[in-house]
Design a protein that fits this description.
The protein has two domains: about 240 residues, 3-Layer(aba) Sandwich (Aspartate Aminotransferase, domain 2); about 100 residues, Aspartate Aminotransferase, domain 1 (Alpha-Beta Complex), CATH 3.90.1150. The strands form four sheets. Strands 2-10-9-8-5-3-4 form a seven-stranded mixed beta sheet, with helices on both faces. A three-stranded antiparallel beta sheet has the order 11-12-14, with helices on one face. It contains nine helices and 14 strands. The chain is an alpha/beta fold.
Length: about 350
């Protein structure tokens, strides 16, 4: 039976990345060595690292006055790296769910945190809009896509202070204006690579804004100055990232990727709206293209365990909602084929017929 991988992360990656990674595990680039045991100081791996940086710069249209580096520790490590480097007096955070709440908790260790807007009043089912951004903030922090609740920013904010964004789960899913951000980061295990590496895109001027003495590995300058090589970088995930970036370029870049993601999301959201057994959980204007959340319709809640079993038996993997919100979540990341979305829709329609 074909499996349809809707897991929220680690998540589906393009087939070509799997295939090339499998080959490199046995013989990396004709070296006779495995990518799992190659020295990160070899020219062969440095070429991979430089290629990944160049492709990310090309695909996202990253201006020349930005640096890109890769580091271990996951996005959760960046929750404290950001305030450790840049929070001197006060930072602003937009609270849109679990991940921003975790980031806020870490930031409070370093200075004052002002929550400038929040969607917690309605269980994070929307993105706050039209809020004031105080001019005295060291930076404003947002999470552009919220994997647990299924909300996503659809426009790049205009901010009078440096804008920092966690883009772990929607990076490279659509074009963005990088110039509006002072720093963008994310864990790679959604749209880019296996777990184990994070990316950071940082504007030049931020390197001079580090506000305190820091341990070497926490200071952003360490990673920029050493081109991600101060210590051993996550070699294998970076290799897979490079393969994924090559795939995105090969299909036409972010304009094509965005159209594909919009099409996939529309197919599933339309079925959720149409199907008498299900309902969406997020305001229409803020619905994520990456993480599509839904629950059973009112009065049908008791069918949830049965539908999960029904869908699992038909090859749907990872559609159970996060434990904090329940229901269902279909993560439709870049590499998920439209055929998988169509298979889930067919499954929902078949289930509806059984309960008419």
């Amino acid at each position: 039976m074909k499996k349809h991988n809707f897991s929220a992360g680690p998540s589906i990656l393009p087939d070509v990345a799997y295939q090339n990674a499998a080959k490199a595990i046995l013989d990396f680039n004709g070296t006779g060595l495995s990518i799992l045991s190659i020295s990160h100081r070899t020219k062969e791996f440095e070429d991979v690292l430089n290629s990944a940086q160049a492709l990310m710069r090309e695909l996202l249209g990253i201006p020349e006055n930005y640096h890109i580096y890769f580091v271990g520790g996951g996005a959760s490590t960046q929750f404290f790296h950001i305030p450790a480097n840049f929070l001197g007096k006060k930072a602003g955070y937009v609270n849109t769910g679990v991940w921003t709440k975790k980031a806020i908790k870490e930031a409070k260790l370093y200075g004052e945190v002002e929550v400038v807007a929040s969607s917690e009043d309605r269980n994070f089912c929307y993105i706050p809009k039209n809020f004031d951004i105080p001019a005295d903030l060291d930076y404003l922090y947002i999470c552009t896509n919220n994997t647990i609740y299924g909300t996503e920013y659809k426009v790049d904010l205009d901010s009078p202070v440096p804008l920092i964004a966690d883009m772990s789960s929607d990076i490279l899913s659509r074009p963005i204006d990088v110039s509006k951000y002072a720093l963008i980061y994310g864990g790679a295990q959604k749209n880019l690579a296996p777990a184990g590496v994070s990316f950071v895109i940082i504007r030049d001027d931020m390197l001079q804004k580090v506000v305190r003495p820091l341990p070497t590995m926490v200071n952003v300058n360490t990673h920029v100055e050493n081109n991600s090589m101060f210590n051993t970088p996550p070699v294998f995930p970076i290799f897979v990232m490079n393969e994924t970036l090559k795939w995105i370029k090969s299909i036409g870049g972010l304009e094509v990727m965005y159209k594909m993601n919009v099409e996939k999301a529309k197919i599933l959201y339309d079925e959720i709206e149409r199907n008498s057994l299900f309902r969406p959980t997020v305001d229409e204007a803020d619905r994520s293209l990456m993480n599509i959340c839904f629950v059973m319709a009112e009065g049908k809640e008791d069918l949830a365990p049965e539908f999960l079993k029904f869908a699992t038996e038909r090859g749907m993997v990872g559609i159970k909602g996060h434990r904090l919100v329940g229901g269902f979540r279909a993560s439709c990341y870049n590499a998920l084929p439209k055929e998988s979305v169509e298979a889930l829709v067919a499954c929902m329609q078949e289930f509806e017929q059984l309960h008419k």
